[in-house]
Every structure is written in C-alpha cells, then in structure tokens.
C-alpha cells in the first residue's frame, strides 16, 4: 500500500498522488507492489531497497548515503503486546533539499502501531514544519515511546507474577484467598512470552541506537541536519540508553523468575514424590503382618485362637499408625 502525506496546517493528511512529489512531506510504503515501488522511484529519483536488502545484517547495507539521500534500516518490534510479536526491518529514506524541504520515505512489510499513532498525534499537536527531519524525528519519538510502554507493561505483569508466585501463607490459605496461587505451568508460559518480548525490544533499542549514532556522525553539508534536529537526536540517544538499562533489568528479572518457577515446580514434584514414599513406608509394616499370617503352615498358634483375627487387624493398624505418628513428629508430613 502506498500512502502520500502532505502537511496541512501542521497536520499530516493522506492524499492521492499529488502533481508535484517534492511537495509531499512523507511517503509511506506498506508492503508495496513492484508498481508502487517504481512509482516512488520515478517520482523522487530514489532507489528503493528490496526486501532481501533490508534483511542484510551488515551495517554498510543498512546505514548509508545513496544519491544524496540518507538510507537507514532498523529492526522494530511489531505486535509487541499481541500473541505473536515479531522483529521486522523498516527503512527510512531521507532526502533533504537544503532549503527546509525534501521528503521522507518509509518502507515496511509489517503493521506498526507507532506510525498510526504518529499521524494521530500530529492532529492533536501540529508539526512546526514538514521537512523530512521533523517527520523522521517525530516517528522516531513515537517508536521510542511505544517501546517504553511495552517495557512498562512487561514490568507490571512481572510484578504481578512475582506477587502470585511468592505469596506467603500455607496451601489452604492460598487456595481460599481472593488471588489464588498461579498455576506454575501458566506462569512459566507467560514468563517465556515476556522473555521473547524483552529480547525483541532489546534488538530494536540496539538498532535505534546505532542508527542515531550514525545520523549524528553524518554531518555533511548535503544532509542539512538542523541544529534543533541534532539536539533532539542527542536526547533520543540518552532515552535509548536509559531504556536499554531498563531492558537489561527486566531481562535479569525474567531469568530470575524463570529459575524460581522451575525451582517451585521441582519443589512441588518432590512434595508429591515424598507423599508417595511416606504412604509406601506406612503400609509396609501392615503388609508384613498380613504376609506372615498368610503363610500356609500346619501349626500357627493364632489360627485356633478366638481373638486371632481381631489381634491381626489391631497389629496391622498399629503398624500403620506408629510410622505415621513418627513422621508427623519429625514434621515430614
């Protein structure tokens, strides 16, 4: 899908192909067809990277200058709060004209909520200008805010899981409490999902940090990086550093909770095995008594004794109760 955005009183307005492409503030290519790519290339005189080129991991293939345009490719998290988060490459092509104008082209093959939020935000707080740097930095700011919100949601859910996993009290109290102890298998699954999201956010933060550093270093005259844009870019680099530290903290917390949950699962499994072992030990003496009186010998005094049967039952009951009381005294049960 190809969408042209023009600036109308500081707001980005989607429009059909205008008569003059230089008057376009932003061109968004979302899973474009070959015809749409050729249209943009002919209109702006740019070489649109292919999908395979966008996936190259070499820095020289992701951050470079081509025909006076700055080409920046970064991996961003798509559907971060959904059931299937992914990391997909997104390319920004900036071509300033040196007179406060120019155009920004974005190329992506995934749905990014940040782009729609940026357009909505422009309607509430109009842009000061429609030059490519303002639009690019506005999108970048929205992307960073979305990553921060994602990490915040992960942190809140981890706090909730921590309270549920390490809730104090005995099992009966936990079972009747308003917030019962979580099923550890479900908790383990949620921790795995959070680990996936945190690792993908870290990938995006690292890519954005490299991209911001590259743009800050490219101060050639033909790029026309305004001083205010450079100041915003430096502020973004500080934000990215803070988010990276926060991501590392959450990653360590996820690892701790994963180890703790696996440990609790082992504790519960050991408790079950302990119960079976105790039950087996309790029934071993009665089984021994029953085996003795089940032997076929001609002379056994208790066989002709009127109280032999009740005596055998009482002996088996006592043989079972005494080990049970001993285990309770030792607090093994």
UniProtKB/TrEMBL annotation:
Location(s), subcellular: Cell inner membrane
Cellular compartments per GO CC: plasma membrane
Keywords attached to this entry: Cell inner membrane, Cell membrane, Ion transport, Magnesium, Membrane, Transmembrane, Transmembrane helix, Transport
Top-level division of the source organism's lineage: Bacteria
Transmembrane segments: 275-295, 307-327
Catalysed reaction, written as an equation: Mg(2+)(in) = Mg(2+)(out)
Protein's membrane topology: Multi-pass membrane protein
GO molecular function, one term: magnesium ion transmembrane transporter activity
Main location: membrane
Family membership noted in the UniProt record: Belongs to the CorA metal ion transporter (MIT) (TC 1.A.35) family.
Name recorded for this polypeptide: Magnesium transport protein CorA
Taxonomic source organism: Aerophototrophica crusticola
């Amino acid at each position: 899908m190809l969408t042209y955005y023009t600036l109308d009183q500081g707001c980005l307005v989607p429009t059909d192909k205008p008569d003059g492409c230089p008057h376009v503030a932003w061109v968004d290519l979302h899973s474009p067809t070959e015809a749409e790519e050729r249209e943009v290339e002919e209109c702006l005189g740019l070489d649109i990277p292919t999908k395979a080129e966008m996936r190259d991991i070499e820095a020289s293939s992701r951050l470079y200058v081509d025909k006076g345009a700055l080409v920046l490719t970064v991996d961003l998290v798509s559907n971060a709060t959904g059931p299937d988060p992914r990391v997909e490459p997104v390319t920004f092509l900036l071509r300033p004209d040196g007179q406060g104008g120019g155009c920004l082209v974005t190329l992506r093959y995934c749905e990014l909520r940040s782009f729609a939020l940026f357009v909505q935000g422009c309607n509430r707080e109009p842009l000061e200008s429609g030059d490519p740097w303002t639009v690019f930095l506005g999108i970048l700011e929205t992307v960073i805010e979305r990553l921060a919100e994602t990490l915040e949601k992960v942190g809140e859910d981890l706090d909730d899981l921590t309270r549920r996993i390490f809730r104090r009290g005995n099992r009966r109290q936990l079972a009747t409490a308003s917030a019962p102890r979580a099923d550890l298998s479900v908790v383990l699954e949620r921790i795995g999902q959070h680990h996936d999201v945190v690792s993908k956010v870290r990938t995006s933060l690292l890519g954005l940090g490299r991209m911001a550093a590259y743009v800050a270093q490219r101060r050639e005259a033909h790029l026309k990086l305004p001083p205010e844009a450079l100041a915003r870019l430096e502020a973004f680099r500080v934000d990215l550093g803070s988010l990276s530290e926060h991501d590392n903290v959450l990653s360590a917390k996820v690892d701790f909770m994963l180890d703790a949950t696996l440990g609790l699962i082992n504790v519960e499994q050991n408790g079950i095995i302990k119960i079976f072992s105790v039950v087996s030990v309790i029934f071993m003496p009665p089984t021994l008594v029953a085996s003795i009186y089940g032997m076929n010998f001609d002379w056994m005094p208790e066989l002709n004794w009127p109280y032999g049967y009740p005596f055998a039952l009482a002996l088996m009951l006592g043989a079972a109760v005494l080990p049970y009381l001993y285990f309770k005294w030792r607090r093994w049960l």
